């Protein structure tokens, strides 16, 4: 419930709402957003970094610019799902899994990579859910998907292969 409240507080800012509205129309970069909102690039950058850390927006490099896009997964969920209080978990294994994910993920982003094998496997399996099973991916596509969760996409990709969650054959990746 704390994460949901933090997310609502994050977007309860006029400037951030205006940025989100612009990003709903099209992906953009700092200077363009600053120009459209008549704000300084530093102000836009400040808000985008907060939103990126919370997982509300995604960021990808395109030539000389960092292009920001809306994380539609968060906003495609119904408001009722966002504010609904979670039911108690009966299954102990599922309860442990949720505790691990709550500890290592904040707003959909991996805050740190667990050192314990079991916890790392839980975290990697959560990231693997972002992939379509049986579909072939290029290394660039894999890196982009993993980057939504954590900056070190190379390490996470190698770990997913080591845990048998992903295979690599002739630079073609597939989630098993």
Tally of DSSP helical segments: 10
What about the largest sheet? Answer: 3 strands, antiparallel
* Distance linking N and C termini: 32 Å
Low-confidence stretches: none
- Domain module count: 2
- Main sheet: strand order: 5-7-6
The value of Rg in angstroms is: 18 Å
What's the multimeric state? single chain
| Helical amount | 40-55%
What letter string, H or E per element, gives the SSE order? HHHHEEHHHEEHEHHEE
Strand content: 5-15%
User: Could you name the CATH class of the largest domain?
Assistant: Mainly Alpha
Mean pLDDT: 89
- CATH architecture descriptor text of the largest domain: Orthogonal Bundle
Shape: globular
Structural class: alpha+beta
Q: What name is given to the CATH topology of the largest domain?
A: Arc Repressor Mutant, subunit A
Number of strands: 7
